[in-house]
Amino acid sequence: MKNTFMAVGLTAALFVPLAAEAFTTSRGVRVNPVNELIFEVIPKSSGTFDEFWCGASEYARRVKGAQWQDSIHVVQGRNTSVTTGRRSAVQFTLSPQQVGVSAPLQGWLSLGIKPGNSMSVQQARSYCDQSPVRY
């Protein structure tokens, strides 16, 4: 019995640091660190372009201390979250060279969020000001 309580206590202690590092935007978009260099943006539903970039900007600025002119880079496009298991998440970094991200091939049409896409923290923050369209 004593071992069971100890095991439960140790297991609970493992999850405390993860909860403390979670960040949520005013729109309810969650951002979790994957490691020291990569973080992932996890919206409540499937997520929009605006939600992903806004969440990345808010986290970069408030948690990572990024400056407005710093660039945010997509590490992994829309995929399953590695921190929560939710079906829709995008991974970002402020250190593309250290994680091996290179610019994507650019064509005349680019849809979605692809690895290598980037924008400044300030430009990404502009997506926070856009209100969602409701029908």
Write a structural description.
By secondary structure, the chain is of the alpha+beta class. 32% of the residues lie in helices and 21% in strands. It has four helices and six strands; from the N terminus they run αβββαββαβα. It has helices at residues 2-21, 49-62, 96-99, 121-125; strands at 23-24, 30-33, 38-42, 71-79, 89-93, 118-120. Strands 1-2-3-5-4-6 form a six-stranded antiparallel β-sheet. A hairpin with a 4-residue loop joins strand 2 and strand 3 (38-42). The longest helix has 20 residues, at 2-21. The N and C termini lie far apart (56 Å).
Radius of gyration (Å): 17 Å
Low-confidence stretches: 4-20
The succession of helices and strands, N to C, reads HEEEHEEHEH
State the helicity in percent bands. 25-40%
Number of helices: 4
Jot down its keywords.
135 residues, 32% helix, globular, 4 helices, alpha+beta
Fold blueprint:
Blueprint: H1 2-21, E1 23-24, E2 30-33, E3 38-42, H2 49-62, E4 71-79, E5 89-93, H3 96-99, E6 118-120, H4 121-125
Antiparallel strand pairs: 1-2, 2-3, 3-5, 4-5, 4-6
